[in-house]
Amino acid sequence: MILVVALDLFARYGFKKTTMGDIAKAAHIGKATIYNYFESKEAVFAAGVESHCLEFSLAISQAVETATTHEEKIRVWLSTRMDMVRKLLKDIDFTDEALFELLPLAREAKRKHFDQEIGFLEELIVKGKNDGVYQVKYPHIAANALFLAIRGIDIVYLRYHGSPDLEATAKEMLEIFIRGLKTR
User: Fold this and answer.
1) Is residue 18 classed exposed, middle or buried when 0-12, 13-18 and 19+ CB atoms within 10 A define those classes?
2) What does residue 143 show for φ and ψ, rounded to 5 degrees?
3) Domain presence at residue 117
4) Is 142 in contact with 181 (CB distance < 8 Å)?
5) What span, in angstroms and rounded, lies between the C-alpha atoms of 60 and 77?
6) Is 12 contained in some domain?
């Protein structure tokens, strides 16, 4: 409850203008109580980002488990990832100013999440390689390349609050990537 309220206030009024007292009041708890959970509003924001990252990761891993082929697993990874980015845009309606003000505060949580996501992609590629479906010399580099390419699209997507053209671009790029991984 505290995280949802805080993220809404940060989006609405900006991080700098929002106080711990504002968060406590909106969450209908005492100001002292909020400090039992979080030492600062930076900690509140970081916890909100970590919560979204966990939700993001769980949704992706559960969706990928339903796919049967190696290629389908990577396609499901991308489509679920795009769904989660859309959900994030809907749940957290930040202005561009607020978004770029807050992103540096989430640096550590984002880095941890990105490392996990690259590791997840690497696992998918290694499994495909071990089963003879993919031919790739360096799975970690391939996973990193795919992640960075998609991440670049994410940034533009977030900046312009979604775009069907960007989704189509991401899907086409993924198909090219999958063809490049496949054994000849």
Assistant:
1) buried
2) -65, -45
3) yes
4) yes
5) 6
6) no
- Tell me how crowded residue 62 is: count the other CB atoms within 10 A of its CB: 11
Query: Residue 69: which CATH number?
Result: 1.10.357.10
Residue 96 belongs to some domain of the structure: yes
Which residue has 């924001």 as its token pair? 45
Domains held by the chain: number = 1
Place of tokens 């504002």: 22
Phi, psi of 134 (to 5 degrees): -110, 145
Q: What is the pLDDT along the chain (184 residues), one digit of tens a residue?
A: 899 898 888 878 877 888 999 999 999 999 999 999 999 888 898 888 888 889 889 999 999 999 999 999 999 999 998 888 877 777 666 666 666 777 777 788 888 989 999 999 999 999 999 999 999 999 999 999 999 988 888 777 766 766 667 778 888 888 888 888 887 6
4: in domain: no
In this prediction the pTM is 0.80
How far is the C-alpha of 63 from the C-alpha of 59, rounded, in Å? 6
Distance CA 157, CA 151 (A): 9
Look up the domain containing 56 and give its range: 49-181
